[in-house]
């Protein structure tokens, strides 16, 4: 290991706000393993760790404590940082900073936390702090991906068993959201995936998250400078970085240039297939229509999930309502429901699809068959909000 703090992590001392790295990822992805790895390899940076685990007993804090006895570890058990414990997260971070000196804060989030609200807590503060927390600076959002789980879930055709988590937050959804909101993505557990599949996984992940630095790891072994003191985090960039958002933006630009004409955009429409995507059969497209869906028929199509989709997300124009119906699909987990009204905007369906060897025409035909005809539409209030679990 390098011996100086700056060499290892690029962290300077002084009165600057304490940098923070947040480690996210689904249950069992390897977050604790990564944090332990950091604590045992970083020499000159004093790292404090806040661990948030969903169980009654904070197994992670126990594990970390046992292996690193003199480290500042705080246990935020019995809740999830992203929803109930935002105040606690900040309170504990501040308390920790008062009672001990450290150079760097690492937050290990629970396997069901959404990274975005955690980031927001540091950037905007909470009701209690009435503003941003000046003592800390969010430096890096890291996601640890269980590459084996990802491959099983989305590519091999076999579904991994759902751990005992919130039925409102299926694994696939947590997995995809943690990929979509991060600066550094660690493809962990690559030792468990056939070599021939690792490139394919990376290509799919790159499609979901074009912005992040992606590294392959086994047991979280990584140069600490990859995730500490990177200075990569920027809230605006992170919020815009999901692959589906980027694809939708580029689609809208093309549509503007074409004066709003209805058209289809596939990968090679305005940015050619990368060789990797073509080789690995990863494709994406945007489905756009200005005719409305019939609510019931749309729900039927959404229930039929035999189409190699890893991620689909966007807006649906549905007959019989002024509401925009948002649709979000991660693997086989789908939710759809009102997310606001169209207002001045021309109602238009815009759905981004990312998947493996998807048959774009077949998917478009299926969706077209759900468009409303001249008869009275089904009442959308009877259909939405809709939640389909794997
Ligand atoms: N084969 C293999 N196993 C790994 C790797 N990384 C971690 N593990 C194992 O995976 C299991 C889960 O690892 P943890 O580090 O506890 O995962 P976590 O994300 O902290 O899990 P939760 O706290 O439950 O969310 C442990 O048994 C680890 O030893 C890896 O790269 N390869």
From TrEMBL:
Residues 253-275 are annotated as: Disordered. Pfam families: cobW, CobW_C. Residues 253-274 have a biased composition (Basic and acidic residues). Keywords: Chaperone, Hydrolase, Nucleotide-binding. The keyword Lyase does not apply. GO terms for molecular function: hydrolase activity; nucleotide binding. InterPro entries: CobW-likC_sf, CobW-like_C, CobW/HypB/UreG_nucleotide-bd, P-loop_NTPase, Zn_Chap_cDPG_Synth. It catalyses: GTP + H2O = GDP + phosphate + H(+). Residues 282-371 form the CobW C-terminal domain. It comes from the Archaea. Belongs to the SIMIBI class G3E GTPase family. ZNG1 subfamily. This is GTP-binding protein. It comes from Natronocalculus amylovorans.
